[in-house]
Design goal:
Shape: globular
Largest sheet: 6 strands, mixed
Structural class: alpha+beta
Strand order of the largest sheet: 10-14-15-3-16-17
Number of helices: 13
Order of helices and strands: EEEHEEHEHEEEHEHHHHEEEHEHEHHEEH
Low-confidence stretches: 129-134
Distance between the termini: 56 Å
Mean pLDDT: 84
Strand content: 15-25%
Radius of gyration: 25 Å
Helix content: 40-55%
Number of strands: 17
Amino acid sequence: MEFTIKNFGPISEAVIDLSKDLIIITGENNSGKTFAANLIYSLFNQQYKIEDTELPKFDRLYEEDELMIDVDLLEYFKLNEREFKVQILQIFEKAIAKDFSINIDQIKDAKFNIQFNDYFKNAIQKVWSSEFRLIKDDDSYGDKITIDINKNIRSNILHFSIVHKDETSDFWDDYIQDCSSNVCFKALFNNTFIMSAERQGINLFTRDLTLYKTKIYDILTKLEIDTSSKLLGKLEENVGRYSKPVTDHIDFIAGLSSKNGQKTDFYDLVIDFEKEIMDGHIAVSEEGEIKFLTEGLELDTNSMSSTVKSLSSLMYYLKYKAKKGDFILIDEPELNLHQDNQVKLAKFLAKLTNMGIKILISTHSDYMIRVFNDLIMLNHIQTRDTSQASELANHNSYQANELLDHKNMAVYLFRKKKKVSAVHIDETGFAIDTIDDVVDHINKTSNEIYAEL
């Protein structure tokens, strides 16, 4: 799915391929990288709904009191692709001003577009890692209705099994349209988690902000002011207007609890990474406070290192919330990390990508880029000679589950007042001129000065 952005903030034009598993955006400061990441997050986080779609032809199979229907979702989407596109863009464009906390007049010249290409075809088969099943009992129509909806992985077919005495078709056509469109939207837009560059402050102050909000509510209650009135709404309207990524991250931190998460498929990987990069582990108290456990100590956010504060919410999300197919967006993942830890983080993100997490990062880190290039080259060598690739990987402290296929990656270079360019990427990796030029200039200057000593 290609997402086109025109005339939004510092972005004159950008076309970003969202079908890739690892997307890297880089470039100059104030060139629109954060704008692009936030727009993508906003695109994936709307309440999309479509009315009056067309269903493909399907058979109705009756067995006693059971009605069974199979809908080909790929065929359904092809029939309604234009309507999906129009509805998505309309809802998204209406939400932008609110999501960015800006006046709508500021974006009157902005234009957006999406092209699905083969994105839906690939997404619908892998959107669930296991069987999707929904059982619904509904007695609003008199007799009890039992609806069993399931879809297998690597299948386009949405199967309905309906037990109900009334076999009229009009109601079921509407119901099947509604279910089919909801499944299509779920396939198009993965669950997302975003880490903005403000994450350290969010992690540090969210609990206090929530406490102050509760105190204000208590004070209003004691003063016998009707808290159901518009007063609280006005307070929220005029205090703390942040963009959607920031407010969503605040809500995520405010809702943390040691009781609201089960271990995910990524738990063990994260535990190992935390030990390696932090020499400890992130935990959450029953009260929802982030804690850092290290060497027998339990530290709160005020006492944590900047590295721990920067990564804590991501670690918690991956350990207790993440699912395969999720889309994680990280603004400057290298924030506050020593170069050695930047290398470790790049390898960790590569492992997550290979485990089924979709990732977009905005980075200035030459170290992370070099690691990605190493992993791309090793992957290509492995296709030719597995033993040679294994030997090279071991010698250079890389692992087989970190290797990256460049065909599943996209890289974009942002420059001020210029069209965003897609960076060429192949089996040798990719080059970022704006970073390489600076590194080369520094090296050349240092060598010239050193030669005169």
